Amino acid sequence: MSSMSVNENARMAAVLGLDLLDTEPDAEFDSIVQAASALCDMPMCLIALLDEHRYWFKAAIGMSGMTEVAKEISFCKLSIDCQGLLQIPDCTQDVRSADNPLVLGAPGLRFYAGIALSLSDGTRVGTLCILDTKPGALSDMQKQVLTHLAQAASYALESRRVALTQIASESTFRTLCAVSPLGIFSTDIHGFCTYTNERFQALFGLSEHESLGSGWRQAVHPDDRNQGFAAWDSGIGSRVEVVRDFRVCHMDGRVLTVTGTLRPVFTADNKLISFVGSVEDITERRNHQAQMERSLTFMRQTGALAGVGGWELNLSTSQAFWSDQTCIIHGVDTEYQPDIQAGLDFFLPEARDILVNALQALTADGDTLDEELRLRRADGRIIWVRVRGEAVLREGEVVRLRGAIQDIDNEVRQRIALKNAHDRISIATQSGDIGVWEWDVESGHIDWTPQMYKLYGVEPDATSLSLDWWSQLIHPDDQQVAEIMLSGLMEGEGDLDTEFRVVRPDGSVRHLRSCAHIRRDVNGRALTLLGVNWDVTSLRQLSMELAEQHELLHVTLQSIEDAVITADTAGLIVWLNPAAELLTGWGCGDALGKPLEDIYKVCDEQSGLPLKNPVTECLVRDQPLNCGRDAVLLARDGSRFGIEESAAPIRDSQGQLFGVVLIFRDVTEQRRLRAEMNFRATHDELTQIFNRSEFESRLRKTLNSLRDNTEPCHALMFIDLDEFKLVNDACGHPVGDHLLRQIAGLLGQTLRAEDTLARLGGDEFGVILNNCSVTHAQQIAQQICHRMDDFRFAHGIRRFRVGASIGLVPLNDRWASPASIMQAADTSCYAAKEAGRNRVHLWLESDQNMRNRRGDMQWAARLEQSLDENRFELYAQKLVSLTDDCVGLSAEVLIRLSSEGGRVILPGAFLPAAERFHLATRIDRWVLQKSIQTLAELPSLKDVRRLWINLSGQSVGDREFHRDAIEMLTQAGSEICECICLEITETAVVININDAADFILSLRALNVKTALDDFGAGASSFSYLRNLPVDALKIDGQFIGNLVENPLNAAAVRCFVDVAEVVGLRTVAEYVQTPEALAYVKELGVDFAQGFLMHEPEPIGQLLRRSLGAQSESNEVGGALV
């Protein structure tokens, strides 16, 4: 609809509301028309009101009886929408009116002027018009007059509308008052009632006359008059609205509570003309409100007790209402009222999804909501709540959702805990094979879980449960006991806890444990039994096994040699086994309950000081304790036992400590043997003084101590006996041993108690003089020389003079190692010998003699470097068989040194230095290892008979070398061992007869042959053949060199061959240089010959490749050494 149509409709409604159309003429409007016609000097004038199809003339002059004009040709439609006065001077000349019938026809209008008539709300309802049949124009004065007259006409129209409105309002007011449930009244400006309706009169119990003026005040409750009237009068005086609740005493005795409202009425110019008001009976509402408040309080209190709150959700506004308890459940202020999203955000994500879906279903289908969900309170605590809800419908549509929320956190957690407990019990009963049963004593009804049937080995369907039936399953030996137990249980107090055996239908016997709780009435009579059964057969078997093990353990502990004491956590003795009783001297009965310290007393073996109680220390540490100390047990009778001890905590199955076990054993004999072994390891067997190993160890410690004390306050003596070999050769090895023991005693008497004396080997001794200046050391060394000079060794009728050459070396931080010191001391000793023997030579850096010996020392360093760099080479010289029983190659292994320039150095250049500086054993070890490796690398050993390998005297007397050699040969295997013969010089055997004999026996066990080298060089060579299980003799070269020219040598060789033949040994002639000598030794019966005549030494690999490839050279292969 257009805006023009809207205006027309509003105008039509306003015109109809004036109730003027088609009414009689009105003088007021007629006078306005007349005045306008006269003042504007126009013959025609009219007031036209708009109608649906016309403009009707309320007043008109000069219109020749016309009372209306059609809307479509009326000039009024032009002026009614015009702002201000509309003037058309000549209608025939204006396009808006030139073709108008009123212009072209009667009345022939030529001039028109009009202005709209408006009501107070601006609605235009008509026009004031002047017209003429001739052209014209209005002056300004006329226009102003016409405008004022239009305003007067408009005011007249407005006045009529107001009057009509007032009449309608008064009528409406009277009608409303008659039908209103409220008491209606009006007053004058002073507050005196001028009108009351019937409801007012009924409420106050007054007639109309009694209610007017101030009469109504007499019905107001006396207690409410003062404050009520004061407020009423105040409102009248200040001309403001007053609302007041007060009580009315009705004439029939009732007391009503009413709400009175008084409002001032003003004119348009704000002039007070009256007051109007109403009185409403709120007695029932107040009573209902009080009841509601009481109900609300009750609901709030019960809701708080039950943890239930209310909620409502307005779907149109998405606003939620929460009750106080709902706010409390959420942990927010009771004033908090969230929107729907804020309310949902309290719930955990998974709960929120469930709630949203439920609310959507509730909204769509009008279904009910009932969910248990988790929400996070404002304080962060997560609780379980139950949310219930329903839809509120209006005209079939859901407009609101309302419901309740309840804090069920405790209930849910209890339910979960109960379920978990039930699950645990279920798991326990299932996994633990526990059967649950219940017996109603009064009815005799018995109920079993499935597990019970399994325990008894019966099927549920084939079983009728009864007490008699159950009794029949009890083992016959247990039935009477079970019946007595049940009978006593029915009559007495307490619960059931017993064990019995059952015999299953398949004949198997099982041990069952039964526990039950008995529910009794007030008189103590048993009503029901609820209990469990479980199979303890394995436990009974285990108990029997444990009893057997306990008995076995008891018997074992009673019989073992180790002593055992157990104590409790307070350290009080609980038990001793017989071994402990024997060692401590205390019987188990006497020791029981006594503190361990009173029974077990131990002290240190060396100091004798008491030692800590191991049990106490074990309890403090709470862990096993292996004492590892040299303890001595002091027995009750004063006996002393060397013991080894350990203690350990004893724990129960839960790991709780309940005691300690102490185990100790008598190691007195072991310690004695250990001390003896330690003594043997550190002392020389012959002289009972320290050996070389211990000497070097102490020397190393002394050197280490010099790092903190650089002052030379220690000294070392190297002592070599003079003329000892003469005694040994002349009188034999046992006599030489006796001499060495006497010399050791003499040296010990001369030295101080803090000095270290050791036999370094053969006739060599070493001394470490601790905290001794060089001057004092020289005095001690010189005193030794004096005593040796005075000493005479007697053997039979023979007397020998033996001296001592001493090398003295100050110990300071210049020495890098014990080896360098020993080299210096050995050099000084050698210098003493060269200076005349039985004297002392002090080592000095600038000493000429030292410089003379420096070459040997340089050799020593060079040899050590060569060993590290593997610069030695193996050569070999063949042994030629002089008999016909030979198969395979035999050759003596020789050693050469390769210089940096590639020159081959013979052993005569470096072996003396190796012997002097104790490197010979390392060289022997290298030669043996390389020889074994050479044999192992051969494709076959069938053409190799024997490799003869020399050992130095130092190696023969070195037990560590013995162990290494035996280990290498054992690892090489029996085939290689059968191809090796080790040569030992007669001199080395004489010095180390016992070690040599043991070594030869160990070699023989591996099928390794041994030969006595340089045989005949000693004075007592034949005596060793009885004690040494050698396989061959190598005759000293001094007898072979001039064998042909010297009959004595020939006789000696013949003697050697005869003796060897008697004892079953093979013989080898060394240094055969001439054909005559070769023929002679063959004639004498020697088995093998060796020398440059037959073969010059060559690299062993070259010899093996050449010899093993020439099978025809059988005459050059050695015979069997058997």
TrEMBL record:
Q: Which residues form the PAC domain?
A: 242-294, 369-420, 496-548, 627-679
Q: Does the keyword Nucleotidyltransferase apply?
A: yes
Catalytic EC class: transferase
Name a GO molecular-function annotation.
diguanylate cyclase activity
Task: Check the record and name the CDD domains matching this protein.
Answer: EAL (cd01948), GGDEF (cd01949), PAS (cd00130)
Report keywords, A-Z.
Answer: Nucleotidyltransferase, Transferase
The chain positions of domain EAL read 856-1111
The GO biological-process annotations, alphabetized, read as: regulation of DNA-templated transcription
* Segments forming domain GGDEF: 712-845
Q: Recorded E.C. number(s)? A: 2.7.7.65
Renumbered to this chain, the signal peptide range is none
Give start and end of each PAS domain: 169-226, 549-622
Look up the record and name the cofactor or cofactors this protein needs.
Mg(2+)
SMART domains referenced in this protein's UniProt entry, alphabetically? EAL, GAF, GGDEF, PAC, PAS
What protein is this chain from? Putative diguanylate cyclase YegE
The gene from which this protein is expressed is yegE_2
